[in-house]
Fold:
Amino acid sequence: MAISDVKEYTHLTDEEVEQIGRELDAIRAEIEESRGADDAAYINRLITIQRSLAAAGRVVLMASAATGRGRKPAWAAGAGLLAVAKILENMEIGHNVMHGQWDWMNDPEIHSSNWEWDTAQPAEQWKHSHNYIHHQFTNVLGYDNDIGYGILRMAREQKWHPANLGQPVYNALLATLFEWGVALHDLDIERIRKGEKDPKEMKRQLRQILRKGRNQILKDYVVYPALSGKQWKSTLTANLTANIVRNLWAYVIIFCGHFPDGAMHFTEEEIEDETRSEWYLRQILGAANFEGGPLLHIMSGNLGFQIEHHLFPDLPSNRYAEISVRVRELCDKYDIPYTVGPLHKQYGQALRTIIKLSLPNRFTASDQPEPPTPARDRKRKSDDERPPRRRELGGWMRSAAS
Amino acid sequence: MDAERGVVSLRESRLSQVDRIHQVAWVTQCALSRICGGCAQSLGRPIAFVGTPEEVARNAFHLPPMHVECAEDLRRTPRADPSWQLTLTAGFEFVRPTREDADRRPTFQPNSLL
Structure:
């Protein structure tokens, strides 16, 4: 079975699939050619705003500690400003910078190679677990570790286990502690448990996580509270609140990207020998957008345009809105599903899936248009087990052999 | 190192992953994870690409992105293609092959040449 056999594609000829690819290539080329000063100004402006919000939050908290007046409103304002700053930093800045969306600017700071974000997961591990594993194997069961993050059963094709009964609780914990769940994501606990993880690599990753986690804890729960003197407790709780708000927001946005009804899952057979056009189509079918105004999209790291982000993960996020108009037209033209809805509806569907799939399939009905393939064990795979589409030897190896 | 010829042995270099630089899976992983194809560590800035004069002319490289030092070491290994040239960039596009491409390997297109 290939991806071209997936129900949503079967009305398309090979030539039409390739034509869709060419049209998406043309959109990509147009954005690349028009990328310039306005885009650079956007990201620079956004970083200035984010840093100003963070500084304002810190100042408000410290000032209220110093004067002792209006403590509660100041606490709320400080925590709110910090939460917004952390959300912007993680979603619209950090996530997108680490995709290389702004590398073309040749800015020494705003570059995928050296951006370290304000969350517990080390940037290097994020770039592996997200940029590579998730974006290359989007929604492929057994390959994309973002399908339930190793904690939740999010596809009917995943085997049910009695532990899944606790999903609503795990989900609430994951949402609240999201940055710590993400921090452990690239470790691949399942492979560690089965003794399949290279111990050297595991130790290296653990050291990175401990160092980053320690620095985050020191910053938010020791240094800034200490700078607030007697009111240290107020600053500490404000920082904790800001982190939890950011966690909850990031969790909701990320869960709306691939778990609403209509976002499909794929099997390893379906991505065999995938061409660029078929890869594009898998991104369209595997992702879901949500609607909203410009502020909502900026606060979501433009992941409300999840389909466009998956098609072009390294194009500047501020261009996704204009790209989405053309992608949607393309989907209409070729009668390809384009999953979109309001944020509350998309999250509601994801939450319903979490709750439904805590039970065995026989107790619930599928909400997906695609009939599920038979359940079987879909354990996480290591990088070596993930399929190369083709292994070949080039000039260097030929010269080596001679 | 053979100082006279400027040749670097693999043991002297950081090129722990050099045997994988032609594997599509590794090339893809390097591109998306933003790691060096030679040493598997996070890429720096600038990013180096090594390629034949044709690849340089077409601005489309097959070998994965590398640190400048790793790319230079790779060019000095005894097995290197003597025609290889070094290109530096701040960023690149990762381009997957289409059905029509005879060469089904992905390519890298530097987008901010230095």
The helical segments of chain B are 24-33, 53-58, 68-76.
